[in-house]
Amino acid sequence: MKKNIAIIMGGYSSEVEISMMSGDVVSKHLNKDVYNVYKVHILKDKWVVIADEGEYAINRHDFSAHINGEKLTFDCVFNAIHGHPGEDGTILAYFDLIGIKHTSAPFYQMALTFNKRDTLSVVRHYGIKAATSFYLDNGDAINEDAIIKRVGLPCFVKPNNAGSSFGISKVTQKKYLREAINYAFAEDNEILIESFLDGIEVSVGVIDYQGKTKVLPATEIVSENEFFDYEAKYLGASKEITPARISEKQLRRLNSVAKEVYEILNLSGFSRAEYIFVGDEPYFLEINTVPGLTEASLLPQQAAAAGISLEDLFGNAIETALRAS
Asked: What pLDDT digit, counting tens, does each position of 151-201 carry?
C-alpha cells in the first residue's frame, strides 16, 4: 500500500518563498508509484493541504485533514521549511509529540544547529577550527572598538538565527559597523560578528544515505559580490563549481571534518555546511539542516555529482525516516 507523504513548506520566516520552491521540487520528483504525495502549506495564517485543486484545513490535534468526506492522515512528513518553524525544530517537536515520522534530525539537533553561536561552541570543543567571533544581544551596549579589537576588519555581521544570508553584511570600515549591526538585528535579537577569513569557500552536503553517513562532492563558491549573499545564492551572482577545485589533501581534510561535524552534532537527514580554507585547513562557518532543494540548489547539484538522482535523494530521506524507531 502506498504511504501518504506530507511535504511541509512555507514557514514563518523571510525564507517562505524559497521554501515553497523547495517543496514544489520535492513534490515533482517523489515517485508517485510508491507514495501518495501532498503539499502542505504551513503559514502564519493557515495550515492547509493542497488537494483536488483546493485547500483543506489541517487539524492541528493530529495533523490530519478531511477531503471530500474522507479523513487523510500521513505516514511521514518531508520537511522543506527553511527557517522557523521547520529548520529550528519547533514543528518537529510537535510531530514527535503526536507520533508522526519526519525526514529531519531530532528537534533538539535542529534547534542547536539553527543557533550559530551554540553550534560553534559545540564544534570548537571537539577541535573544529572556526573564525574568531563576538556576540551581541539586542539591547547590549555596543563598543565598536572592542568588537574590532577582537575580530578585526573586514568582518562579517550576521543574525544568529536566520538563513539564506538574510541580514548579513561585510564590514570593511568602522563607520559602517553600527549600520550592519542594526541590519542584522532587524532579522534576529541575537547577532554574531566574525573575523574575515581569506581563502577558498566551499559548501559540502552530508546526508544519511542508505544507512550510512555520506559526504557529497563539495561545491566551490565564487561570488561576484562581497560574499555569498542572497543575490549570489538565488539570483545568479555567483559561480558554483562542483566538484570544488581543491587539492587532494584539502579534499581529504574537508571530507574528514565534514563527516566529523555531522556526527558531533548527532545529525540525520540532510545537511549542508560552509567552510573556508585557510591553507589546507577547512574553517567551519555554519550548517544548514534544511538546505535548498530546487534543481539549482547546491545539495541537489552535489547529489547529482555523486550519481544520486533527485527521486533517489528524496525517496531515501523518506525511507530512512520510516525505518527510524
From this structure: 999 999 999 986 546 789 999 999 999 999 999 999 889 999 999 999 999
Identify the CA nearest to 22 among candidates 267, 297, 242.
Answer: 297
Q: Cα separation of 166 and 195, whole Å?
A: 18
The CATH 3.30.1490.20 portion of the chain extends over: 133-195
Per-residue pLDDT of 239-259, as tens digits, reads: 999 999 999 999 999 999 999
Q: Which of 325, 14, 280, 281 is nearest to 162 (CA)?
A: 14
Fold of 3-103: Rossmann fold (3.40.50)
- Tell me the average pLDDT of the chain: 93
In whole angstroms, what separates CA 159 from the centre of its chain? 14
> Which triple of cell numbers denotes residue 6?
506530507
- Pair 227, 219: CB distance under 8 Å: no
Q: Decide yes or no: CATH 3.30.1490.20 for domain 133-195.
A: yes
Quick one: residue 210, left, alpha or beta (phi over 0 = left, psi -120 to 50 = alpha)?
Answer: left
Distance between CA atoms of 188 and 69, rounded to whole angstroms?
A: 43
| 306, burial (CB in 10 Å: exposed 0-12, middle 13-18, buried 19+) | middle
Length, in residues, of the chain: 325
- Measure CA of the first residue to CA of the last residue in the chain; give whole Å: 20
Q: Element (H or E) spanning 305, and its range? A: helix 298-305
CA–CA gap between residue 292 and residue 296 (Å, rounded): 9
- State the architecture of 111-129+198-323 in CATH terms: 2-Layer Sandwich (3.30)
